[in-house]
Amino acid sequence: MNEKGDSSTSLSFITTTYVMVDDLSSYSIISWSQSGKSFIIWNPEEFSSNLLQRFFKTNSLDLFFFNLEIHCFRKIDSRKWDFANDNFVRDQPHLINNIISFMIEERDQLDRKMDMIKAERLFTMQVKEVEDQLQPNRCYPNEQHSFLTKAYEMVDDPSSDKIVSWSQSGKSFIIWNP
């Protein structure tokens, strides 16, 4: 879904919810709280069967609560159905645009994170492909031991003293005129 589609759907949900809460004829079912900074669903059964059907063409409370959650509403009071969002305030409908802007910004940040994850995975796959193409360094213990044995024998051989010999300490060797 494109950005315009997402934001227009969100705007529709927020605007419709605002109109529904602001509707004086439904104050016994849903209304603004006394402070006007949240709204309360007074009668969930009536809300579900009548208002949701009328305003949203559904009677699913779960869907309505899911939409509240994705639009950053929070439950204020655990004893009643009181929901708030700092940009959903009585007599300030212009603030609802901030909800949409915030959601677009959040989605853009998520998209950027997903792009980073995809780039990291691609990089990891490319590194693995290169590693798979490289010939492994086959230095097996027996071959390494054989090489060291031959090197030790060569340094120990008095006939090769003009090429290679032990140092005075006997802990290292010297290659003469490399």
UniProtKB/TrEMBL annotation:
Q: Which GO terms describe its cellular component?
A: nucleus
Q: What is its main location?
A: nucleus
- Tell me, what is one Gene Ontology molecular-function annotation carried by this entry? DNA-binding transcription factor activity
**Key word Flavoprotein present in the record?**
no
Domain named HSF-type DNA-binding is located at 9-102
Instruction: List where in the cell it is found.
Output: Nucleus
Check the record and name the Pfam families matching this protein. HSF_DNA-bind
GO annotation terms (biological process): cellular response to heat; regulation of transcription by RNA polymerase II
Q: Which InterPro entries match?
A: HSF_DNA-bd (IPR000232), WH-like_DNA-bd_sf (IPR036388), WH_DNA-bd_sf (IPR036390)
Keyword list, A-Z: DNA-binding, Nucleus, Stress response
Family label: Belongs to the HSF family.
Q: What is this protein called?
A: Predicted protein
Q: Which organism is it from?
A: Arabidopsis lyrata subsp. lyrata (Lyre-leaved rock-cress)
